């Protein structure tokens, strides 16, 4: 039976609308800053951030003088992005958009970015095609994607154990491998550079980290609400154990290092 990508997209949109991802995404601001630096974004360039959430990477581009657009299919997150832009006195455009069907003309942008965002769209081939379609020839595509062996990759694997995804979907963390990127982009790019980085997420302790994610992070909150009490206990214990595995703190607090692949590609 073929995968119903439309239905899956609707479910994912509801999932990411649960809680408030901004409370989680603020820990990843530095990844957006590093990405626009690697892309050498400069003043006057037209930049589109896809699945941009509350605007981390779009705002990083705007700080460098770019004409930045933050797009996402969760309108509440775009409202957050706009509030942040106003607070910083930065011009920022927002647009409700699905990464799999971007509402922009071919070749509109000089730079297209996505930081831990487009990788979660169920139709990976269509998403890759859209990212490149709206980019001008010779333009730069930049991504930050969690790797399969990262804490984030392990966390999503754990979520899938308790709330299995529909069969036939390629794991989002496949975007965190150069092999998959070359499969998706093919001869539509003329160059591809990747390097491994890591994001740091700090909390009072791993139990407190779980409580934050349960409250504000859509995937964890969705699983929690779908489980009965006994399964909730098992999920919480497994989540905390996974966090402890990646915890680098030595003082009883929590400092999780999660590896990601920074990607810079040039459209052919």
Would you mind describing this structure in some detail?
The protein is α/β, with parallel strands linked by helices. The protein is built from eleven helices and seven strands. The chain has a seven-stranded mixed β-sheet with strand order 3-2-1-4-5-7-6, sandwiched between helices. Helix 9 crosses helix 10 (218-226). The chain is globular, with a radius of gyration of 18 Å. It starts with a helix and ends with a strand. The mean pLDDT is 96.
Descriptive key words:
single chain, 268 residues, alpha/beta, Rossmann fold, seven-stranded mixed beta sheet, 7 strands
Given the structure, what is the number of helices? 11
What kind of sheet is the major sheet?
7 strands, mixed
Assign the CATH superfamily of the domain at 5-147 and 165-200 and 260-267: Vaccinia Virus protein VP39
Shape verdict: globular
C-alpha-based Rg, rounded: 18 Å
Give the amount of beta strand, in percent: 15-25%
Tell how many strands the DSSP assignment holds.
7
The CATH topology of the domain at 5-147 and 165-200 and 260-267 is given as Rossmann fold
Q: What would the average pLDDT be, to the nearest integer?
A: 96
Oligomer class: single chain
Report strand order across the widest sheet.
Answer: 3-2-1-4-5-7-6
Helix percent band = 40-55%
The topology string of helices and strands comes to HHHEHEHEEHEHHEHHHE
Distance between the termini: 36 Å
- Global structural class: alpha/beta
| CATH class membership of the domain at 5-147 and 165-200 and 260-267 | Alpha Beta
The residue ranges in which pLDDT falls below 50 over 5 or more consecutive positions are none
């Amino acid at each position: 039976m073929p995968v119903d990508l439309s239905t899956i997209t609707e479910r994912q949109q509801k999932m990411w609308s649960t809680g408030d991802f901004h409370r989680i995404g603020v820990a990843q601001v530095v990844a957006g800053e590093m990405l626009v630096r690697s892309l050498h974004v400069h003043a006057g360039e037209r930049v589109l951030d896809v699945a941009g959430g509350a605007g981390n990477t779009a705002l990083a581009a705007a700080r460098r003088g770019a004409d930045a657009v933050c797009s996402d299919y969760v309108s509440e997150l775009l409202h957050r992005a706009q509030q942040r832009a106003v607070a910083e006195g930065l011009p920022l455009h927002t647009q409700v958009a699905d990464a799999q069907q971007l509402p922009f003309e071919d070749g509109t942008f000089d730079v297209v970015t996505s930081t831990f965002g487009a990788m979660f769209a169920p139709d990976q081939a269509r998403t890759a095609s859209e990212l490149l379609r709206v980019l001008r020839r010779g333009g730069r595509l930049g991504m930050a994607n969690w790797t399969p062996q990262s804490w984030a990759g392990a966390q999503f694997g754990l979520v899938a154990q308790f709330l299995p995804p529909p069969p036939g979907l390629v794991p989002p963390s496949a975007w965190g491998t150069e092999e998959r990127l070359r499969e998706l982009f093919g001869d539509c790019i003329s160059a591809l550079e990747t390097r491994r980085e890591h994001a740091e997420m700090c909390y009072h302790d791993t139990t407190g980290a779980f409580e934050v994610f349960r409250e504000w992070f859509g995937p964890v909150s969705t699983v929690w609400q779908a489980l009965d009490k006994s399964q909730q206990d098992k999920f919480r214990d497994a989540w905390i154990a996974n966090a402890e595995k990646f915890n680098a703190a030595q003082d009883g607090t929590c400092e999780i290092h999660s590896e990601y692949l920074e990607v810079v590609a040039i459209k052919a």
